[in-house]
Amino acid sequence: MTIKITEPGLFTTVQDLGRRGYESYGFSPAGAMDYRSYCLANALVGNDFTKATIEMTFQGIQFTVLKKTTIATAGASMNLTVNNQPYRIGTIIDLDKGDQVVFGSVESGVRTYVAFTGGLDLPSELGSYATHTRSGIGGYKGRVLQSGDILKTIGGHADIPLLEVDEAIETHEVEEIRVILGQESERFNTEYQNLFKSSEYTVSKDTDRMGARLEGPAIKSDNGHDILSAPTQFGSIQIPKNGQPIILLADRQTAGGYTKIATVAKVDLPKIAQKQPGDKIRFKEISIESASALYKESLEQLQNKVDLVPSKDFEAVRRTDANSVSKLIGG
Amino acid sequence: MRVQQYAEDALTVTFGQDIDETINTQLVQLKEKFVELDFEGVLDIVISYTSLIIYFDVLRADVKAMKSALEEMKQEELSTTPSSYKVVEIPVCYGGKFGPDIKKFEKSGLSETDVIELHSNKEYLVYMLGFMPGFPYLGGLDKRLYKDRLDSPRTRIPAGSVGIGGQQTGMYPFTSPGGWNLLGRTPIPLYDKNRDHAILYEAGDRIVYKAIDEDEYYRLEQAYYDGAYEVKVIDRGEANDD
Questions:
Q1: How would you classify the pairing of strands A92-95 and A69-75?
Q2: Model confidence pLDDT, tens digit, residues B88-145
Q3: Which chain B residues are Cβ-neighbours of A136 within 8 angstroms?
Q4: Alpha-carbon gap, residue A126 to B17, rounded angstroms
Q5: pTM for the complete prediction?
Q6: Domain A174-301: CATH architecture, name and number where available
Q7: Predicted ipTM of the assembly
Q8: Burial of A331 by CB count in 10 Å (0-12 exposed, 13-18 middle, 19+ buried)?
Q9: Which domain covers residue B175, as residue numbers?
Q10: Which of B10, B49, B176 sits opposite A233 (nearest CB)?
Q11: Which of A106, A150, A178, B170 has the fewest CB atoms within 10 Å around its CB?
Q12: Is A39 helix (H, G, I), strand (E, B) or coil?
């Protein structure tokens, strides 16, 4: 089960759910930007949520199949063909030796995940497969994938049922992003807190795996914008001196010196991960208790495969017959 | 002392507002006490200047129990003298091509030898790690060595560089752009994934720089590569009695 990359896409990395346990040493957890799509892709091929998976950004990869494999996709809707036959994102695809798999550009959203049965066969670094390109750690040689890279997969014995992801990613013209107020929110007076909660912000071009810079009404702090360097979270919303919020994302530095007005609720991080430059968002405050309950519910739903349904349209999936499926798994 | 939750998977304990050695010592003690309680689902405990964050697995950890346990640990009951810590010796070749900015101190009347004398052979407290993996925020720099960052950052600072940025000294475990004044470089990899401790120090430990010359730099570099050099780490305090 091996593939050879022929086109690397715009920014393609190997990710899992992140490198936890080393933030005390300053290691950014990195990991999938959209945990939900990462989990869905893995659930489709019967993986648990620790496997090395490919994350593509805006423009996908192209690869040649060197040995039989089974993949599943989830996340942003992206053009995909296998030997010129189109398939939709959110399904399982059996691949044979010599197949040409071409992911194109996204139709909406930003990031699409490709999971392989058993995950990619790579060495883990500090307990994780997550790539952090800025420090050259993890994933495939600590970097984005390039043409010519050959990736092996582990394979597995799972009897993969014919499922697909239930729904496309819902998007709204102005996406509501739930936030937990906090950490330094007392440094912002009521007027600015209300401005933050009532305004529309636009995701700027200056957005990557490290952070999303927003453009909109400037938020001012009464006591300056610098703090002693303090830990940051996936979703921390920093307000630097110019008042334009920055949402810190997967590849963030573990400590930062700007005031933080709020934290994005984890259930809404996948929405942020799928926002294109120019997309609009609005913040809504929720309590930490609600945010925690929603996040737990979301993780439990993913574990229980609630969002996967039996495939109805057999034209839309690419499966060899049941017999050969059982043969190729583990091959 | 405040215990708060600003994220689904994190509890934050805050002690004061300033950079203070005593606060660091108490945060380290709090971490040790909390670790002893052995709560299920704890992923990481991160110390910063004035706070400690506990990250946990939301599906396994009992947040309420952890919060009340933390609230019972009173700051005033935490010792202000460290119980145990490591002193890590980092060999540094000062000046020359490794430390192009060491000559800048001549303006303030400090020769290269003076700078080395003021900077090496003293224990710097590791307040926290961040900015990049293994980058230590160190306390204890001699006031005479305070130096503003470069007006225009260098595009590439080699891994192992030791420098000064404002009132702080520190070192770059990874090659990166940066605006610090460079004093020298260590031949020892500050991050080595194959070493028992990929990063040699953590918050609460001390770092001592030992001056070496260029010949020694290359000798140690080779020795480390050959597996014939081990970084000197001294355990201080209670840990010695175990």
A1: antiparallel
A2: 999 999 999 999 999 999 999 999 999 999 999 999 999 999 989 999 999 999 999 9
A3: 174
A4: 32
A5: 0.92
A6: Beta Barrel (2.40)
A7: 0.91
A8: exposed
A9: 84-241
A10: B10
A11: A150
A12: helix
